[in-house]
Amino acid sequence: MADACGRGRATALAYGVLAAPHAATARLIKIPRKENVTEIRAATVLPARRTPITLTTSDGLNLVGELAVPIVAAPAATLVCLHPLPTAGGMMDSHVYRKAANRLPALADLAVLRFNTRGAESERGKSDGEFGGGETERYDVEAAVAYATAAALPRSYLLGWSFGTELTLRWGLLPGVEGGILLSPPLKRATDDDLDRWADSGRPLTVLVPEFDDYLRPDEARQRFARVPKAEVIGVDGAKHLWVGENYVRIVLNEIVRAVNPAALGDAGTLSTTWPTTLPTTLPTTGPTSGPTAETDEQ
Q: Which fold has domain 40-276+287-294?
């Protein structure tokens, strides 16, 4: 009988029930669960609403592209990506831009608009027209900014890489553009006159220059951009023109976010390198979505 009572009392206590007025207080001990997260790698695709788009230029060309936006939050800012030289393989899927579109809507609440300039081709398709040497591409830049404005996307920044920096500097001072971010600017087609126009505009430039760039290295870049009071030149140790390597991609994406939505970097001052493995429970009913999934191109 005593054994039975003992077992009953133990059972009662196990369920947090007091067996007598003066019984010891029962406590529930919770074992912390480790959150399931996945490391963000070169091929990681985080959740976003991704929509194929077509831009129409003032000279009648259709340019193929994609808009990626956060699933839940409204975008805090917009990146309009201007890709490297199409005659050397540059396109909207050039790896830094693809990774920006794959990560930044989820990690930093950014809208990322990518497109192929005239004559450029990617998996999304080929844009009308032919390469214009940086001249007729002015209409492509205008069409992209006009699309962002018509779509009510907030706070547009031009994100140019190599050839795309020339387009940014030459043709990017458009209504609705708040500033520019330049990756590996060669300053070949763009001149000091273009830099002076940016200086006069008062709009900021963030300039990321690889230590071992093929065209313009940090010391010379600081000299050239000194004429733009709101230009910040950031030299990146060990990097090269194409920013190959996940460590350099993360540096670039951190600096992009620092320029347009620094609050997304949090206390650590960097973007998260992990993501919960559980997908959002609510997805939009229109527009394609994806993530997290993996791609095959590790560059």
A: Rossmann fold (3.40.50)
